Amino acid sequence: MLIDLLSNRSDYVNDVSNMIYKEFVVNTGSKMTFEEVCIYFSNTNSERFPITLIAIEENECTGTISIFENDLKERELYKPWLASLYTKPEHRGKGVGQKLITETLKVIKKLGYKELYLRTENASDYYRDRGWSFVETITDDKGQKIDVFKFDLNNKKIIN
Fold this sequence. Notes:
By secondary structure, the chain is α+β, with helices and mostly antiparallel strands. It has a single domain, classed as Gcn5-related N-acetyltransferase (GNAT) (Aminopeptidase, 3-Layer(aba) Sandwich). The protein is built from 4 helices and 7 strands. The strands form 2 sheets. A 4-stranded antiparallel sheet has the order 1-2-3-4, with helices on both faces. A 3-stranded antiparallel sheet has the order 5-7-6. A hairpin with a 5-residue loop joins strand 6 and strand 7. The longest helix is centred in the middle third of the chain and has 15 residues. The model has no long low-confidence stretch (mean pLDDT 93).
């Protein structure tokens, strides 16, 4: 499995956009169009946010993850954020997500950050089991409860 920056692999922009649109736009009731999602992912970067990484196996994009400056407007003081981790269902349970997270932590460290945050509505145990520290539970502007986690790069080893 190869993990690479989407900015190096523009031929996978449509695949990533499709995954993210179905999982994080349609499922959340966002008004974003598929075309807007494609434009967004066509403009990801390698050394400034937003940054998107992809997992490729046998020329197929099997998963994706992004890094945003902020992913929760109620907590603008926390920066940067792991966002939009997604693995295709047929590739789950094979370590794709963990490899994407590991590479994301390496990118963050290379950029000089000491910590990375994330938000989750339903995967707290997944992150807790992988060394992330619970920060707080908040209720967003839509009334949804969100757990916020942090990975401290100073005090924790990046798990490969």
